[in-house]
Amino acid sequence: MLLRFQISRIAPRAFAFKPAYFSTSAPAAYDHILVSNPAAGVGQVTLNRPKALNALFTPLIVELNDAMKKFDADPEVGAIVITGSERAFAAGADIKEMKDKSYADVYGEQFIQSWSEATKVKKPVLAAVNGYALGGGCELAMMADIIYAGEKAVFGQPEIKLGIIPGAGGTQRLTRAIGKARAMEYILTGKNFTAQQALEFGLVAAVFPPEKLVDETVKTAGEIAANGRLAVQAAKEAINYGLQVGLEDGLVYERRLFHGLFATEDQKEGMAAFVEKRKAVFKGK
């Protein structure tokens, strides 16, 4: 499981062993997250505020953004997994950080704007959601390209009960994922929904037993990372662009990316390997 690859919080700057798949670059020391390389080509960020059920607050987001940028720039990493604990992916935003802020405070500092930095990562991001994914936690999960959920996962946008609305993408991404009627119902009532409902709604790709969730997510991340890195990033770019424009514009953009990949070494290798009936060896070039 994951613990084999976690960086110890007791001595984050000096640890004795190096897992088989750990990146050659030295990992940064963090206070609120753990970083690891649980499989070849896979980088993992584990939210680590157990006493607060991984509640999101600015120091954690700063660390998360830093780790994501480093993984995105690491040539040994082809896909990234974000997860929490079996009890909570992230139970929401830390209300203690927000409760005394004024309009001038949040508007002036563009509060929570930086929470969406994860969406700027070029490499595929997979969220492994166990336990609570509420408020900001649900929004963070929805920033991923693929969400997998544990059987006991609970999703929701309960901000309405605090006199506010989702502010890190909840009203936009949830609506696009599950449709206007359902999004309206859950956002306006603040009700939660289960992992099975999330699967039925199309929000998550699959549901696993909690103890197998992270391993299954890492397995898929590894399969993605084994493909041509440029093609994977182009496919992600095409899908995300298509969600923002009309069909015709999306088709044109897709075709341009498709054409562009014929200038890569990976395209030559992939097609040659297919014809020669061997496994392709992609180099991300």
TrEMBL record:
InterPro entries: ClpP/crotonase-like_dom_sf, Enoyl-CoA_hyd/isom_CS, Enoyl-CoA_hydra/iso, Enoyl-CoA_hydra_C. Keywords: Lyase. The keyword Lyase applies. Pfam families: ECH_1 (PF00378). PROSITE patterns: ENOYL_COA_HYDRATASE (PS00166). SUPFAM superfamilies: ClpP/crotonase. Belongs to the enoyl-CoA hydratase/isomerase family. This is ClpP/crotonase-like domain-containing protein. It comes from Myxozyma melibiosi.
